[in-house]
Specification:
Length: about 290
Amino acid sequence: NNNFGVFSLDGRWIASPTRQAADIASLPEGISLVSIWEAESGQEVQRMAVAGDIVALAFNADGQRVAAGTASGLVQVGQIGSRRPLADLYHDGPITALAFSPDGQLAASSSQDGVVKIWKAATGEVVAQLTHPRVQELTFSPDGQQVYSISWGGLLIASNPLTGATISQYHLPSESSYFIVFSPDGRWLATGDGPVVQIWDLTTGQEVAHKTNDSGYSILSVAFSPDGRWVAYGNWFEQVRVWLWHPDDLIDQACSRLSRNLSQAEWETYFPPGMPYHQTCPNLPPGDGAEEN
């Protein structure tokens, strides 16, 4: 199935496999095309020929390079505005995920061969690799010092991109996640199974928020906003919800609509016994029966 596409981080470009029958029929056997589109105008600006069926795509941070991974294990990097590929890299199985480092110097690729390779994006030279079977998604940390790989079994590994050495690893409790998406800054992870979306802190492996789709329908896709504060998710019945998920943002939003903090009675109703009262909205007075602190 090559019916997919990806946006560059700045939203200027869209890359997708070419699906027009006339274009496909004119290609040599075993060759596929990646089309680059200008998002604002909808105009196709470039095509890149790749050997094999395209199964993964990724832009680098400035949107000037695009990597295409194939079912035959080839990864090819192209430059916007150039017809000549920059680099080729090979795995021993179909590509499952691709990612660029924040500075665009390195790229990471995973494959059904169970290997994650980190390599120079301009040359294809491998600088490190690690073993991680069934990898579903890859991303680099915002400072480029770690590369995260997560598998269908819920195993999340943070590795040194220059050596491949494991920095940390843990299993997420949600092992049957249908989708796994990293936030643009690489700090948060959204996973989900059925009608539930969960947000995880990558630095601790802890769940920080979750949301159940009100309709009860299984979620088909999810995406973070560029600043990571909002999550959009859609289901099979063409319904889309947008969620301001971070607790701090939710508190700020609630405080902007209130005239006071919770009363002592309200606090005891909503919070576990023994949890000390505190003013959630520091700019507002305490509620009835609560002491200001």
